[in-house]
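Hey, I was hoping to borrow your eyes for a little while. There's a protein on my desk that I can't quite get my head around. The fold is given in discrete form, as structure tokens running alongside the sequence. I'd be grateful if you could look everything over and explain what you see. Here's the protein in full, and shout if anything looks odd to you:
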Amino acid sequence: MDRGLIVGLVLGAALILMGIWTGGGALSAFVDLPAILIVLGGTLAATIVRFGVSGLSKCGRLLRIAAAGRTPDPEETIRHVVRLAEIARRDGLLAMEDENESLDDPFLRNGVQLVVDGTDPELVKSIMEIEMAFLEERHRSGQAMFSFMGSMSPAFGMLGTVIGLIIMLGRLNEPEAIGPGLALALITTFYGSVLANLVFLPIAGRLRRLTEEELLHKEIITEGILSIQQGENPRVIEHKLKAFLAPEQREVQVRSSARMARAKTESVVS
């Protein structure tokens, strides 16, 4: 599990609570059931209207994905593709079929199988790009749901503010009712802002980043598979795929490749 999500949420909540406490406020004053019902309940209800019950039911799975934060390592992906290219160059494309059984990545495994089966390169490219497009579309729906919740929670916070003001203005002749009405008016705005800016929108952004990393992984595989099918030199393929990496990642990849080459040389000599 990537601890970034948990650490960020806990740290943000802790700093907000610390700010309230050091400012002399009573923490109990910021716990209000009617405000929670208006903001959180209203946001969930609007989400059901927009995405349906089935869409809202995916929140748990999306939260697990965001918390896990697992995306394939592009450097490891390049090493797998280069190894396949070396096998194909040495023993032919059909030799990759034996190696294909040990691959954990379904996208890479399917691409290799298409090449082994002699599929036309243009069709291979089309099939892999279609799979990437639908993956992006599926992920976009999850991002859209959290973005929608991030936009709705401040709106329901403002709705709670209006409700609180109406309650307060309707009972001006009762001084004891002014305080609770004004508290409801302000606390709902507080809840809406916290939920939007600390929870919903950051999670939507996190899911977007994970999608971009997953697509990068698949683009590397697609380019590598097509290069293998065209019979390109494994070293050329490796340099081509490194272009997908950021400069600092390329330096790490070069050092890693050098260490592996030295280890291979030493094992041969011994």
Remarks:
- DSSP finds ten helices and no strands in the chain.
- Residues 258 and 264 are 10 Å apart (CA to CA).
- The radius of gyration is 27 Å.
- The mean pLDDT is 83.
